[in-house]
Every structure is written in structure tokens, then in C-alpha cells.
Give the backbone structure.
Amino acid sequence: MTSHVDSHRSLPFLDNFSPRDRKAAEASIARHDEQQRKSFEARDRAASKLALDFRARARSLLGDKKSAMLRDAMRQERLAFRDLWQPPVKPGRDYRKEDAARKRRIDAVLRKLGSDPHLPAIRGSEGDDAWCTPNFGVTSFTSKNL
């Protein structure tokens, strides 16, 4: 996934600053853009690694044909889940309940394919989602730049 991080082009008020202040603001914005780019790339690498690890675990446990069936079922569930949140959204819809139902349906597909959905080989270890830490880096950025 390629992402483009460049915020200073959308800040026309910098023209009203003195040259020294404009240069300081642009330097701060450049540091922020660089930090954000590195953060995006790190998350992209971690997500790619998780996906590859999952595919390898599923393929070794289920075989090529069944792992392809699992991937197709997961894709269908992901799209169906996404469609639930497209307008018009039903007023009482609960995100957590819908997500739990989506996961139960995938677990049912796994059982149908002859695997236990709660095996660590499929689910992965507890540390697999450690990279997904909320507000990671926010305090370090704000303390340096604000």
C-alpha cells in the first residue's frame, strides 16, 4: 500500500507568516509528514506480515483448496459487513454484535472445512495484534511539536 503524506500544500495561511516563522512551521510540518509516513509504512509492513503469516498457517493446516475457500468466505463476510454500514443504516444496528456474528459465521466455515476455529494455528498468538496500539506515537509527537 502506497500512501502519500503531504500536508503543507493545503495550508495557504503560511504565506501570511514572516519568513523565519514560515520556515519553522514548514520544518515542523515536514517532520510531522515524515513521522506519519514512517508510521504508515510500519503499519503496512506489520499488516502485510500478519496477512502472510495467516495465509501460511491456514494453508498448512487446511491445504490449498480449503484455504482458498476460507479466504473467499472471509472476503464475502468482509464485504457483507462493510455493506451493513452503507446508507441507509438501520437505526438500532450494533457494530459489536454484527462483528461477533461475522466472526461466528467464519468459525462455522472453519468447522465445515474440518478445522477447529479456536486453534492457535488459525487464530495466531496473543501478540499478533500488538502493533495495533491505539494512539501509538501521539504523545511523543505532541510533546515534540506542540
User: Anything to note?
Assistant: Residues 15-123+136-145 form one domain. Residues 62 and 115 are 7 Å apart (CA to CA). Residues 19-62 form the longest helix (44 residues).
